[in-house]
Amino acid sequence: MSDNLYYLKNIPLFNALNNEQLKAMNCRVIEREYKKGRIIFMEGEPGEAIYFLKDGLIKLSKQTIDGREHILHLVHPGDVFAEVVIFDSGSYPATAEVIEDASVGFIRNEDMFAVISAYSDTAVAMLKIMARRLRDAQEKVMNLALNDTARRLALVILGLAEERGIQNASGTIIPVQLTNQELANLIGTSRETVSRIINSFKRSGTMEIDRQQIILYKKEKLRELL
Asked: HTH crp-type domain: which residues (predicted)?
């Protein structure tokens, strides 16, 4: 299998397809490499394709009325994003910006729709992805409404540990490049508040954080906040 076929087979949207169907799908994939800080698409631009992340990290965000950024979701390798434009032919509902150098594949709407029409398993997988996205959004709203900022930040860090964490003798290494401002934008607070909470976590020996990674020494300490 080619590199793209490996990724397609391991993406939930396509893993019900057999090898011949995957090869046909592979012919429709367009690849792009993006450097950190690049914008893949902007909120409000015409939605032309569905994307999947092969490597790197991407944030999906919206601008508030007063111009602040609110991060909706972090896209990890293997994730599909911008899937909603397949069905409504509308604009992209958020901006996709590269946080870590990224390798991205995308499939134009007309090609993706042809695949969904031909293979019912893919249509079911697409509905499952959209249902999961809706559930994640509902959980985030509940998190913002019911938890204080320390709990919200603990939930984000524990989620990153589950998605990207690498275990070693000292704890969990989370190789993500998130600034304090981006963490603040994820949990709906200010950079100053996040900095204060992180300093508290550091003093308690729970974690260390810099621009390159998070080192989580005492995962149970964060769980105690929940």
From this structure: 147-220
Q: Model confidence over 61-114: pLDDT tens digits?
A: 998 888 889 899 899 988 889 888 877 778 998 999 999 999 999 989 888 888
Q: Is 97 among the domain residues?
A: yes
Q: Which domain holds residue 210?
A: 145-224
Question: Do 30 and 85 reside in the same domain of the chain?
Answer: yes
Looking at the DSSP bridge assignments, the partners of residue 32 are 104
Looking at 83, 103, 134, the residue that finishes a domain is 134
Give the CA distances from residue 211 to residues 11, 65, 214, 226, in Å, rounded to whole numbers and listed in that order: 29, 29, 8, 26
Smallest CA-to-CA distance from 184 within 153, 209, 138, 155 is with 153
Answer whether residue 71 is part of any domain: yes
Does a structural domain hold residue 119?
Answer: yes
- Render pLDDT for 199-222 as a digit per residue (tens, 0 to 9): 999 999 999 887 678 999 988 888
Q: Are residues 115 and 150 in the same domain?
A: no
**What are the CA-CA distances from residue 27 to residues 2, 9, 31, 108 (Å)?**
11, 14, 11, 12
Cα dihedral value 46, 113, 103, 128, nearest 10: 100
